[in-house]
Specification:
Order of helices and strands: HHEHEEEHHHHHHHHHHHHHHHHHHHHHHH
Strand order of the largest sheet: 2-1-3-4
Oligomer: single chain
Number of helices: 26
Structural class: mainly alpha
Helix content: over 70%
Strand content: under 5%
Largest sheet: 4 strands, mixed
Number of strands: 4
């Protein structure tokens, strides 16, 4: 801890050398947000007052003087309540006089009554304001005429409304206001924390490389863990200061606004209790600090790949968009903080802020939000520590290694795709699926699936052909040993059972996503079964294995080691299935196939197991009764506690046996030791 303390002081001094950090950390939350929030209110108040003080002109044709005079009389009787200054102008020509009026009124009368038609320009504030006032005036005119006609017939207004309806909203005005602006406040808070973490994170990681001091730092008598923890603590310190200042600044601004509203309204109407909200500040401080820790860890993971400040900014920009997009989720009126959304990082913080401002804070959900974000932070810190243990990550070309942009004639034989090539391949494939695959899926979901599988098959083959890669070594095209086949089968059985347990839990948490997933297979299940197997089992067993376990995992293993190859390729494999319910189970399956390929040195075992997995899934949907007799576990609607415990036990046992049989040691594996 003493060494970490010395390193933390060193990192803090390095960060403080850049005055931009202090400006972002202090000036933005303390000065900018109050100026924006209070300034917007003052500007809106000024705009409303200027409209109330201005005389608005409504013009009409001279031939409607009689009808207009009645309309003007109504205005004179109600102008105190309307709170607008109107001037009625009779003109001879509409077009010639259009610069002298804000709205034009046409009058007509028939057997049904008087018709008033108003022409205005909605993009012109003065014209729009005039139309709103004329609409209210027309309503008053209608009410007066109706009252007179009823009185002539000896009737009251109860004759027109034999049924009355009344509703009362249980939400107070302050709760409604808090819910409306809570999403924006949550987004502003998250974005400020993000800005407070980004620049120190860049300085602590990329800055060391740019100054040429990272190599010297690695020679010190400290472990990599001590070094990365000192950097993380220093950057987190700045991010936490920004977070606390942002919370106090935004909180003060909101209290000022609500206090102003309270001064103009009765406390019974607003039900606003500043002391209650102030009591939540300690919990909110914990929330924003944990959020700062999470964003800091996430930022440093990306900055570690960059070699210059400019490059780091390029890497951090997509991260900024992702964080902003997640924080904007609270602006959706239908999205609330519950036991599902509390599990989503960043989103849960923004939703929590909305609940706080609406005075609906739930302590249990707040605790889950804090715990989940803290766990994610620990996980990302662990990944970051792994990165600092790899010289390939610290000193290689990072994402700059786009060899696909070089001329093919200049590329050497046997070139392994770099990190930039892999990133480009993933992005290109994703965009092709999103545009081309989706365009076909609109007309035929089955045809869209075929197109997607063909794209997944074609992209890696074209990439390795262009780069002159060693196809046999990269894709692990080698006959497996019998022992590896047995070990791979046992590992798959264990992973499959554990995957079913995880899927059962996610199905309960996200029932709507499960229902949407089942609906997506309806069109596919209408096809002949051999076509279903060809598209959903055979093609993925070839194309997806070549792309995810060959092109991605093989290249990452060669450059960054087996751990990163298996981890990153499986996460991307899960993300490509674009389903919240399938993300984790599919990633588990991808990790299983990737490890089998790594340990056995052969892609064929994973390809066969991939085919078998998809075959069982489609068969259970196409022939549920037959599969229930053969494998009842696949067709059960819900798993009992006993089923889950047995599956976990058997899954772990099979998985351990499979790993022992597969243990890396077979010559010819294509990985970076």
């Amino acid at each position: 801890m003493k060494k970490i303390g010395i390193l933390v002081r060193k990192e803090v001094l390095d960060i403080l050398r850049d005055k931009k950090t202090l400006i972002i950390m202090v000036a933005v939350p303390v000065l900018l947000y109050p100026a924006i929030i209070i300034g917007m209110v003052l500007v809106m108040s000024y705009a409303m007052q200027s409209q109330a003080d201005r005389v608005h002109t409504a013009a009409y044709s001279q031939q409607y003087k009689e009808e207009a005079s009645l309309f003007c009389d109504v205005y004179e009787r109600n102008k105190e309540e309307l709170d607008i200054q109107l001037k009625f102008l009779a003109v001879a020509d509409k077009e010639e006089s259009k610069d002298f009026y804000d709205a034009w009124i046409d009058f007509s009368e028939d057997e049904q009554g008087i018709h008033i038609k108003v022409e205005y320009t909605s993009t012109n504030q003065n014209s729009d304001y005039t139309e709103n006032a004329l609409q209210k005036l027309a309503d008053r005119y209608r009410e007066e005429l109706l009252t007179e006609q009823l009185a002539e017939r000896g009737l009251t207004r109860d004759f027109l409304y034999p049924v009355t309806y009344e509703s009362k909203d249980s939400v107070t005005v302050s709760e409604s206001a808090g819910m409306s602006m809570g999403g924006s406040i949550g987004m502003m808070l998250v974005v400020t924390i993000m800005l407070g973490a980004f620049y120190p994170a860049i300085d602590a990681t990329t800055g060391e490389k740019e100054r040429g001091t990272l190599e010297t730092l690695l020679t010190l008598p400290v472990t990599n863990f001590q070094m990365i923890m000192s950097k993380y603590i220093a950057v987190s310190l700045f991010a936490c200061v920004t977070a606390v200042l942002s919370l106090l600044s935004l909180g003060g601004s909101v209290l000022f606004l609500l206090g102003s509203a309270l001064a103009g309204s009765s406390e019974e109407i607003l039900h606003f209790d500043p002391l209650t909200m102030a009591g939540w500040i300690p919990l909110l401080l914990v929330v924003v600090i944990v959020t700062a820790l999470l964003i800091t860890a996430f930022s440093m993971c990306f900055c570690v790949f960059a070699k210059s400040f400019k490059e780091a900014n390029n890497y951090i920009t997509p991260v900024m968009f992702v964080v902003m997009f997640a924080s904007m989720a609270a602006m959706l009126p239908s999205l609330q903080l519950d036991y599902k959304t509390a599990l989503i990082p960043i989103v849960n913080v923004s939703l929590l802020m909305k609940q706080v401002l609406a005075q609906q804070m739930n302590l249990a959900l707040t605790g889950i939000t804090i715990g989940i974000n803290f766990c994610y932070s620990v996980l990302i810190i662990w990944i970051l520590a792994k990165m600092y243990d790899s010289e390939n990550v610290l000193f290689n070309d990072g994402f700059q290694s786009f060899q696909l942009f070089e001329k093919r004639s200049e590329i050497k034989e046997g070139t392994v795709p770099g990190t930039g090539d892999l990133l480009l391949g993933v992005v290109v494939l994703f965009l092709l699926i999103m545009y081309l695959g989706t365009a076909v899926s609109v007309r035929s979901p089955f045809g869209g699936t075929v197109v997607n599988q063909l794209l997944i098959f074609a992209v890696p083959l074209l990439a390795v052909w262009y780069m002159k890669s060693d196809v046999k070594a990269l894709f692990s095209l080698k006959a497996p040993a019998p022992k590896s086949v047995l070990g791979g089968g046992l590992l798959y059985i264990g992973t499959f059972l554990l995957m079913l347990v995880v899927s059962a839990g996610l199905t309960r948490i996200f029932p709507e996503s499960t229902q949407n997933l089942e609906q997506s297979f309806e069109d596919i299940l209408k096809q002949p079964f051999f076509l279903i197997l060809l598209v959903t089992a055979v093609m993925p067993a070839i194309g997806e294995e070549l792309f995810f376990r060959g092109f991605l995992c093989g290249s990452l293993r060669h450059r960054h080691g087996a751990f990163w190859g298996i981890l990153l390729s499986s996460l991307i494999f899960g993300a490509f299935h674009m389903s919240l319910v399938k993300l984790l189970p599919t990633a588990m399956l991808g990790a299983c196939f990737a490890y089998i390929g790594y340990a056995s040195g052969s892609i064929f075992i994973g390809s066969f197991l991939h085919f078998l997995n998809n075959f069982l899934s489609m068969a259970s949907m196409e022939y549920p009764s037959q599969m229930e007799r053969f494998l009842p576990i696949l067709t059960k609607a819900q798993l009992s506690v006993g089923d889950i415990l047995i599956m976990i036990f058997v899954g772990i046992l099979c998985g351990v046996l499979g790993i022992l049989l597969l243990k890396p040691g077979v010559p010819g594996r294509n990985q970076k030791e």
